[in-house]
Structures are given as structure tokens and as C-alpha cells.
Amino acid sequence: MIALLTGAYQYTKPQLAALRALGLEVVWMREESGDLPEHADQAEVAVCNGLFLHHKLTEFPRLRCVQLTSAGLDRVPVTELREKGIALYNARGVYSVPMAEFVLWGVLSLCKHANVFYANQKARVWEKDRTLSELAGKKVLVVGFGSVGAACAKRFRAFDATVLAADLQKPSGGFDVFYSMERLPEALSHADVVVLTLPLTEETRGMFGETLLKSCKKGAVLVNVARGALVDAAALSKALQSGDLGGAVLDVFETEPLPAESPLWDLPNVLITPHNSFVSEQNRDRLFSVIFENLQAFLKGANEI
Q: In this predicted structure, what is the pLDDT of residue 304?
């Protein structure tokens, strides 16, 4: 069985040997936006990230299984894959730990005014700041309580924060109070910190516009490590500039890189990072374990996840 592997993951020789031991014949494609290599049209398995942003599914008539190197499904034609009975696996859980640590770092940086202390250090200024806040006792709302959301919740609870969870279905645990998505405005009105970890779909695109942002508790901090298109950037800028929101930790944006003319760059209560929250030196091993286990399960006839 031919497996098309792309440059979305850099395999070691032992890893390639392990895949071949499963009975896979590897075809390599470094750039997903480039021309398809020889025999790619014969692939029954594809391990990729943005391959289908550049190539139509019809170019792979024998495809039976897609393994993504990302957790999100917004870069693949999910409906078309399901209609054709093609198994779809994502990288669920691979990036949860670094993203959750990143979220905690961002919120703590705002609470402890890290930017002020850094600027003072650079200027060699010794000046106390008596306006710092703490996480203990705060209410943190995690919107989209999947693997990343649960990992965030675990860490916030360790800081004695109360975790509110909002999702389509009630999770099995790891939170203090649950809200259905229909009650999201109510949940937002109670939260000191709002963490977005929900997937981007047609239903969630632009969800956090003026209406939901106005539902937030005054002075709340918004964190987005999911997808930039979940949030209306203009409405967010307005809420931050007016003081309705107390701050934001933003790792993802609808347009990346974030345009230089965006007003978000200049807001003192905003922490901007370049879609970096998922990065960790441990991701490589975790990701290959997921790839190998899912392909092994598929080849053994496991059901589509």
C-alpha cells in the first residue's frame, strides 16, 4: 500500500523503517503546494497538513486514509472525505501540553505585568508595581473543552482558579461548572479569563464578534490559541481600546502574519505571538507515536475516528 508523506513532518530513518514494516511503500512530497510526485495518485494513505489546500481530493482516486499532523480539521474537506468513506485521523493530544503551558504563561504575564518589568530591566529602573493581580480565586472559562481545553483547565485549577467549561456536550470532568453553548453569554458574564480552544467551523467562524464580546465581564482577559477567524478583529480591537476587555493573549489571527497596520500591535494590554503556542521539543516524538498508532489501527481495519 502506497503512503504519501509530506514535509509537514520530518521523519527519521528509523521512523520510516517502522512505517515500511507496517507494509507501507513510502512516496515523499516535500512541499504540499508543489507538483505531485510520481505514484502519488496511487496513494491509499496520506500523512499531511495543508495538502488539500493545494490539491483536489479527486487527484487521489485510491485514497482510503488521511492522517493529519495538525489537531484542527479546517484544512481538509471533511464532508467530502466522509462521503467517500475515507478514514480521517488528526493529531489529537499532541500539542495540548505546550499550548496549555503557553496559555498559562500568557495570562500570568498579563496578571504580573511582565512587560513593565521587562522594560524596567532593560532601562535599569528599580520600581515596584503595586497593581499586580493573581489567578487564585479567578473564574476561567474554557470555550471548547477538548484535549487542549482540558489541559488548560488542569493547569488553571492548580492555581486555585475556578474553571467554567462551555461546549456542545458536557465533558466527563476536569471543570467546576458546565455551560451549554446556548448559555455562552451567561458564562462569559462570569469569567475573568476566557480561553478559546474550540475548532473553526462554519458555525464558529466569527463567533466572537461585537455581541459576544459585549457579553464578557468588564475587564476580562481573552485568550485565543485556536484559530484567528473565530474572532472579529475589529470588534476585538474596539473592546480592548474601550476597556471593556482588560487584555488579550493572541497567538492566532485570521490573516497571518498579522498585518503591520493592525491596531492590535500597539495596545499595551495585548500579548501577540506568531502562532507559536503549539511548539515544543517533545512534539516530534508524540506526533510520530500518534501517526504510527493510527496507521497501524487503520491497517488492522479499525473504524474511522
A: 44
In 77-153 the beta strands, taken as DSSP E runs, fall at 87-89, 139-143
* Active site (annotated) includes residue 227: yes
Cβ distance 58 to 33 under 8 Å?
no
- Buried-state track 263-295, b at ≥16 Cβ within 10 A, e below 16: ebeebeebbebebebbeeeebeebbbebbbebb
Give residue 305's pLDDT.
44
Q: What mean pLDDT do residues 295-299 have?
A: 97
What are the tens digits of pLDDT across the range 152-164?
999 999 999 999 9
2-94+281-299 falls under which CATH superfamily? NAD(P)-binding Rossmann-like Domain (3.40.50.720)
- What is the rounded CA–CA span in Å between residue 263 and residue 78? 35
Catalytic-role residue among 83, 256, 293, 304: 256
Active site residue 275: yes
Domain ranges across the chain: 2-94+281-299, 96-272
Among the listed residues 227, 281, 284, 286, the single catalytic one is: 227
**Structurally, what CATH architecture does the domain formed by 96-272 represent?**
3-Layer(aba) Sandwich (3.40)
Non-local CB neighbours of 259 within 8 Å, separated by 6+ positions: none
Is the pTM here over 0.90, yes or no?
Answer: yes
Whether 2-94+281-299 shares its CATH topology with 96-272 is answered yes
Cell of 20: 515500511
Which of 275, 281, 284, 293 is labelled catalytic?
Answer: 275
